[in-house]
Write a structure and sequence with these properties.
- The chain is of the alpha/beta class.
- Helices cover 33% and strands 13% of the residues.
- The strands form four sheets. An eight-stranded mixed β-sheet has the order 9-10-14-13-12-11-15-16.
- Helix 5 packs parallel to helix 6 and helix 9 (240-251) packs antiparallel against helix 12.
- The longest helix has 20 residues, at 266-285.
- It is globular, with a radius of gyration of 25 Å.
- The relative contact order is 0.11.
Length: 614
């Protein structure tokens, strides 16, 4: 955003104060030019009216308790009640600003004639929650869905950003299908250490290897810890957080340009207020996720993800969200996009220099989407009430090295590639845009580990029998085996090789990896080894062959030998015998199916009705 402010009148139908101008933000495009369509709802049709409008004993209780909190009937009567689901917590560094940013959303809701209600939800701090936030993504989805179903709300602003909060909130809101708008936390400011720019995650892995090689002192390491994360906000590399907020925007669930604004930028405050104003209008228009989240919208999201140099986690979350929306999106859709959409966002780790702050200054997501228009469905509706094509019309790019043209990409194909073969019958994923090109076609002996502790111990052994041509394998790290499919997939290169100058090698697992990670890491092997997938049958010395161009990965062992091993295989001990973990293990789906709970998918049963009020 370049500081340009545009005004437009707020005297369309549904405006509470005709003639008063409201501010819109210019996020590289004319966000403020949103125009509300004709009202399709009247006050008596508001969902919240079931709680507050009747002349009965139960509604008396609802009204009296609202008045107990200091509200007057004029504040909610005939007004949309807007939930603000806030994932702030003291254990969530990415969302520190949400404690105050929620007030900016409320300001917007009130300006537009709505009644805001803040509802706290699970925070899912990627850095602090163990064993992995992926174990709890579906719990947040359930939390969000049931918060909306059980409370007297007509629409919702979803406040998230840290990796799993975006898909978790959107999964829940999609299932509930009330008018919803997503408010991204925004990336943090660039890191800095001794004048060098640091990127979240990517430089942590890079300099950790240097420390293991004896090149980083204790003092420098502590100074780097203090300098790599200097403000609130999400990772400022193209990690899972920035990938998923960009995907939310590409689907049409955020205000145009919202996903690119740095968390500490004043434009983020104005965008938050605008989101509050817009959700009130969406309620009157009855503009729901079901109307926005079409198959074409998800195809747009996949296209944008490929051009952004996205996180591998995008595949799991997008498949889950599409299925919640009743759209049949699969690995095949990612493979189709991968073959035709180049990576044009020169942002680390796929890029070599720039971070999300630079991406914002260069024109942000609207600028990038304008450059790949031929690959997008421009007729898709967004939360603005306008089409995607209208939203990105006129969006500019201000730095051609940060956001490249399609004729000068940083990688000629999409960021991700889907591989299949006898080792991964249901598929696995690699990020070729962020690995050493020599490993895109490789054959090498396997070095297998059944759990993370044994792998961690082995890689620090100076006598480990390993070369740079080996394929490091970690198994029992998938959805059930992890449990929760932790981000262990960027296996550490053995210290012995690090000291020899090796900085990449082929690594294979049924785990995930951070979107800030890089290297020749093959992930999400499906079906996972814990339930008897072919990865469970690999032994030390077996030859693994991959060919990214051909999209193949195979275990070069005769089928008769594999059948013998399969007959001998025994499933590891169950991870949980009670509680949420037990439920997780019973109902979690595999990576290629989005890791949703089977009972949460749209096709599982009849839609859940509105709650009874007696």
């Amino acid at each position: 955003m370049r500081g340009n402010i545009q005004t437009h009148r707020c005297d369309e139908p549904g405006s509470k104060e005709p003639g008063i101008e409201k501010l819109g933000i210019k996020l590289g495009i004319k966000l403020g030019a949103m125009k509300m369509t004709k009202k399709t709802k009247t006050p008596d049709q508001l969902r919240s009216a079931r709680w507050f409008a009747p002349d009965d004993l139960r509604a008396f209780g609802h009204r009296s308790r609202a008045m107990q909190m200091g509200y007057a009937p004029e504040e909610w009567r005939d007004r949309p009640v807007i939930a603000i689901i806030n994932t702030w917590s003291d254990a969530q560094p990415c969302h520190m600003h949400f404690k105050s940013r929620v007030d900016d959303v409320k300001r917007g809701v009130l300006m537009a004639g709505g009644f805001p209600l803040e509802l706290p939800a699970l925070s899912l701090s990627e850095s602090l929650l163990k064993p992995t936030t992926m174990l709890y993504r579906n719990m947040l989805a359930m939390d969000a869905e049931e918060l909306l179903r059980g409370h007297p709300v007509d629409g919702v602003v979803l406040m998230g950003g840290c990796d799993k909060t975006t898909p978790g909130l959107l999964l829940g809101a999609t299932s509930m299908n009330l008018p919803a708008i997503y408010l991204p936390a925004g990336p943090m400011l660039r890191g800095n250490w001794k004048g060098r720019t640091l990127g979240s995650g990517s430089d942590a892995w890079k300099y950790w290897d240097e420390r293991r090689a004896g090149k980083i002192s204790d003092k420098d390491w502590v100074d780097m810890e203090a300098g790599i994360a200097r403000s609130y906000g999400t990772c400022m590399t193209m990690g899972t957080a920035s990938t998923m907020t960009a995907i939310a925007e590409a689907i049409g669930m955020t205000l145009p340009g919202a996903s690119s604004i740095p968390a500490a930028d004043a434009n983020h405050i104005r965008m938050s207020s605008e989101a509050g104003r817009r959700i009130v209008e969406m309620v009157w228009e009855d503009l729901t996720p079901q109307r926005i989240q079409t198959r074409k919208a998800f195809e747009n999201a996949i296209t944008v993800a490929m051009a952004m140099g996205c996180s591998t986690n995008a595949i799991i979350h997008l498949i889950a969200q599409a299925r919640r929306a009743g759209q049949d999106i699969s690995l095949d859709d990612f493979e189709i996009a991968s073959r035709k959409v180049p990576v044009i966002a020169n942002v680390r780790p796929s890029g070599d220099l720039y971070l999300m702050e630079d991406f914002f200054y260069a024109g942000g997501l609207p600028g990038l989407m304008n450059r790949i228009k031929p690959h997008l469905h421009l007729d898709c509706i967004t939360v603005t009430g306008r089409t995607l094509g209208e939203s990105i019309a006129g969006a500019e790019v201000h730095n051609d090295d940060v956001i490249r043209t399609v004729d000068n990409p940083i990688y000629k194909e999409g960021a991700l590639a889907v591989l299949k073969g006898n080792l991964a019958p249901d598929g696995c994923v690699i990020k070729p845009s962020a690995c050493d090109p020599r490993f895109l076609k490789h054959s090498g002996p396997a070095l297998v580990f059944d759990d993370y502790p044994s792998m961690k111990k082995a890689v620090d052994d100076p006598d480990l029998d390993v070369t740079a041509d080996h394929v490091l394998i970690l198994r029992n790290a998938g959805p059930q085996g992890g449990p929760g499919m932790p981000e262990w997939g960027m296996l550490p290169i053995p210290t012995k090789l690090v000291k020899q100058g090796v900085r990449d090698m082929v690594r294979l697992s049924d785990a995930r990896m951070s979107g800030t990670s890089y290297g020749a890491c093959i992930l999400h092997v499906s079906p996972e080894s814990f339930i008897g997938g072919p990865l469970a049958l690999v032994r030390n010395g077996d030859r693994i062959t991959l060919d990214v161009a051909a999209r193949t990965i195979d275990l070069d062992v005769p089928e008769a030998e594999l059948a013998r091993r399969r007959a001998e295989w025994k499933q590891p001990e169950k991870r949980f015998e009670r509680g949420y973990g037990w439920m997780f293990s019973k109902h979690i789906k595999q990576a290629n199916e989005g890791c949703d709970f089977d009972f949460l998918e749209t096709g599982f049963g009849k839609p859940v009705g509105e709650p009874s009020i007696y």
